[in-house]
Amino acid sequence: MLEELVGKRLGQYRIKAILGKGAMATVFKAHQPSLDRYVAIKVLPPSFAAESPAFTKRFQREAKAIARLYHPNILPVYDFGIYRDYSYIVMRYVEGARSLSQVVPAALTTEQIIDLISQVASGLAYAHAQGVIHRDVKPSNVLLDAGWALLSDFGLVKVHEVATQLTDVGKGIGTPAYMSPEQAQGDAVDHRTDIYSLGVMLYEMLTGTIPHNAPTSLGILLKRTTQAPPSPRAINPAISPSLEQVMLRSLAIHPADRYESAEDFIAALKRAMMDEASAGPESFNRKTVILPFPALVGVAPQKNSLKARLSNAWRNPFWLTIAGICIAAGALSLSSGNVFRSVASQATSTLTLASPVTLTPRATPAPTLTYTPVPAATPTPASVILISSTGTPLPATSTPTHTPLFPVGSPPATVTPTATLAGVITLLHPLSLEEPSYGPTDFEWQWTGEAIPPEFGFEVRVWREGEPPTGVHDAVLDNLQNRVEHLDKNTYRLNVNIQDAFGVRRRTGRYLWSVALVRISPTYADLGRQAEPTYLRFEAGGDGKGDKKDNGSGVGID
Questions:
Q1: Closest CA relative to residue 71, chosen from 155, 146, 148, 159
Q2: 49: burial class by Cβ within 10 Å (0-12, 13-18, 19+)?
Q3: Is the predicted pLDDT of residue 383 greater than 70, yes or no?
């Protein structure tokens, strides 16, 4: 019936083709003329609205709730509406994306599986914090965009509450294969029902079968409400005992026995992986399921910790040799200790700081950020920055009115300041998640202090939460060549295409951005100071010329 929409308009959207069909909806590829981009539209049949007078209000309420979800692991919702009894939700179109259900049979390593499950759990944790429960977490509702997991179809199960059909897996309210016991019994559900469904996905990816498998949906649900799941290690002995315990707890029959939050579930997975890694590389990299599958999608690479990299480096004979030379040189230096003490004394005597300098390791990680809605209000001014004429930050003359979001180490006490540069950086644009960037972005900020000397400049930084701040342009060239525009006495602006920047790398999602005061002459130097970050939203797919096209596709089907 919905096939008749192809070639016609649904509101402002021109329907181009059918992407897929499900029990509850049909997904179309459509063109949005106002932004000249392709989108995916999930359309519910007119019969839904006819079944209940309350359907329209419920649909609008749920659509507004999920449209406010901005997270790197949640498929963005652009719009929704009702047109001639057709209720529809407009989402990002991800070109060539595959759902996780297409990857489940693949021979993934334990590391890859936990990476994907942790991404989905991260999106759920954010949604739960906003008061949104998914209710239908399953592999077909998780899209993979170059190894990045995107969870879709929030709230659609709640929108259409009809009599449960249990004749086939995948039909009815929720999906029996991934449904929690409380859902199966028709009881009230909370965020822990999503944790159960995520546990089923993890179980399936590690063992090749769902827990409580049975020939019929009714058989699955009957087992699920009365029996504990079979031991995963009995099916796949390669699973570690600690990882098995995580899976079994997430699959507890009673919600109170499961993990209290998705964050707790992620933390438990990480601890299990640490236990697995400590058993040796053979255990860490082993395949969990050996099944044929074509062209596996790439999974986001894992970054080695600084501690691990240093540990490996010191095992290298070259560095051992260098260490021996340094020790010998140190021994020889003892005979000329008076000279070194004299130099140190002179350096100390020329330093005039208002307070003792504390050295903080530059490798100190940024604190984990909690996703919270960004208020549409005047941004809080950044902390006061004091800079010496040689480019070294000095202690502030007054206590800042807030605690900086990212702690910054104090500078080495090895230079003699002769002048100071004080001021406040205030971020001006972008400040709203409602206006996403498609690549080229105007960043604006204010510097309310003294005039900036030629040896100083500004650097715009954009990064994903949990990753280090990263510059998105050549700060030295852009400042020297006046591409960082000085609009008036206090205001500055830089237009830069961020889509290929290291901190973005064409990954759609919510990002932090900030502006830092840096030294650009005689050489670039990170002064370790930046304004307190705020948020922006990036949508992949632009061609770098500001056309605001989104050339992606793929949406989960119910």
A1: 148
A2: middle
A3: no
Note the pLDDT of residue 258: 96
CATH number of the domain encompassing residue 79 = 3.30.200.20
**Contact 404/385 with Cβ under 8 angstroms?**
no
If phi over 0 gives left and psi between -120 and 50 gives alpha, with beta otherwise, what is residue 109? beta
What Rg do the C-alpha atoms of the chain give, in angstroms? 28
Residue 41, strand partner residues: 28, 90
- Least confident interval from 6-10, 138-142, 317-321, 446-450: 317-321
Which is the catalytic residue, given 115, 136, 153, 194?
136
Contact in structure between 470 and 461 (CB atoms under 8 Å): yes
Alpha helices by DSSP H, listed for 185-261, are 192-207, 217-226, 232-235, 241-250
Question: Would you say residue 298 lies in a domain?
Answer: no
Segments forming the whole domain that contains residue 45: 2-92
Tokens of 176: 């029996």
Are residues 345 and 359 both part of a single domain? no
Helix H, strand E, coil C: the string for 120-149 is: HHHHHHHHHHCCCCCCCCCHHHEEEECCEE
Question: What is the C-alpha separation between 88 and 301, in angstroms, rounded?
Answer: 36
pLDDT of residue 334: 45
Say whether both 87 and 108 belong to one domain: no
Token output for 534: 């705020």
pTM of the model as a whole: 0.53
pLDDT tens figures, 131-143: 899 999 999 899 9
In 196-206, which positions are buried (b, 16+ CB within 10 angstroms) versus exposed (e)?
Answer: bbbbbbbbbbb
| Cα gap 421→275, rounded to integer Å | 50
C-alpha closest to that of 148 among 59, 53, 73: 73
Selected residue with higher pLDDT from 354 and 76: 76
Q: For residue 325, what pLDDT is reported?
A: 55
Note if 36 is an active site residue: no
- Mean pLDDT computed over 375-400: 41
**Residues 221, 222, 223, 226, CA torsion sign:** positive
- What pLDDT is attached to residue 1? 65
- Whole-number Å distance between alpha carbons of 486 and 494: 9
Q: Are 420 and 539 in contact (CB under 8 A)?
A: no
Kindly indicate the confidence band of residue 502, based on its pLDDT and cuts at 50, 70 and 90. confident
Domain count, the chain: 4
Residue 277: pLDDT band (50, 70, 90) is: low
* C-alpha–C-alpha distance, residues 425 and 490, integer Å: 10
Cα gap 514→313, rounded to integer Å: 33
Report strand pairing: 26-32 vs 13-21. antiparallel
For the stretch 208-263, pLDDT in tens is 999 998 888 888 989 999 999 999 999 999 999 999 999 999 999 999 999 999 99
Beta-carbon contacts of 359 under 8 Å, excluding residues fewer than 6 positions away, are: 409, 410, 412
How far apart are alpha carbons 338 and 328 in whole angstroms? 18
424 plus 442 within the same structural domain: yes
pLDDT at 516 (0 to 100):
93
Q: Are residue 161 and residue 279 in the same domain, yes or no?
A: yes
Q: Residue 262 in contact with residue 117, Cβ under 8 Å?
A: no
- 123 with 222, same domain? yes
